Amino acid sequence: MSLLTVRDVSHIYFSKDAKTAALLDISFSVREQEFVSLVGPSGCGKTTLLSIMAGLMEPTVGKVTLEDEKVHPKSRKIGYMLQQDYLFPWKTVEENILIGLKLTRQLNEETRRKTLSLLHEIGLRGVEKQYPAQLSGGMRQRAALVRTLATDPKILLLDEPFSALDFQTKLKMEELVYRTLKHYRKTALLVTHDIGEAIAMSDRVILLSNRPGTVRKIFAIPEEIRALPPFLARQHPDFQRLFDMIWKELENLEPSEQRTPS
């Protein structure tokens, strides 16, 4: 069953002197408990599309629905996690992770207890009264994940949440997010530049073309890779073959100056 549906979405940015097409005729759906990644060249509109899916922007054409209802920015069904953790530095970790519940008027003793329990489950026991500046980057991102999950969203939209972390911490966060989302049976959509990350975490990878972004190709990740946690998935014999396939497609989209593969 489709949880999120993107239908015929196009988007144009208008300025005083020009208009720029960012997205063109994009359609796909995300099923319940599925993990989907969006990859593509820089400037192809991945973050624009994510903002539209979050209801933060209206597409010029088309629509996005969640459980057959048009998405809107105040929806409790959508959790949004960004590259920056955006924890309030003047609030404690406990205050930060409870802020979504407070803003949506869901904060009570039961939801507070569940949120603190999740904080402990992901390895942050004992930091409740500390401030963000006292935490490492990985710990801050864990706290941001707890804050995102606290309101029990139907789908998580993840905008390169690990890109600012060192490689070892990034791998640990991939494992943590994978296990947590599987345990709580969550649906997620990840925007990333890292092909390896997309393959290791996803059920499907959607490749967008150069601007204006269109769906160039959708790669289904084989069951034998999907069944493994990210770290082990990267070691599967078919992982490199799939990586090379997606990289080749991406390379064909890019101008002559190529980036180094992630």
UniProtKB/TrEMBL annotation:
SUPFAM superfamilies: P-loop containing nucleoside triphosphate hydrolases. GO terms for molecular function: ATP binding; ATP hydrolysis activity. It comes from the Bacteria. Residues 4-235 form the ABC transporter domain. Transmembrane segments: none annotated. InterPro entries: AAA+_ATPase, ABC_transporter-like_ATP-bd, ABC_transporter-like_CS, ABC_transporter_ATP-bind, P-loop_NTPase. Keywords: ATP-binding, Nucleotide-binding, Transport. This is ABC-type nitrate/sulfonate/bicarbonate transport system, ATPase component. It comes from Caldibacillus debilis GB1. The lineage of its organism: Bacteria, Bacillati, Bacillota, Bacilli, Bacillales.
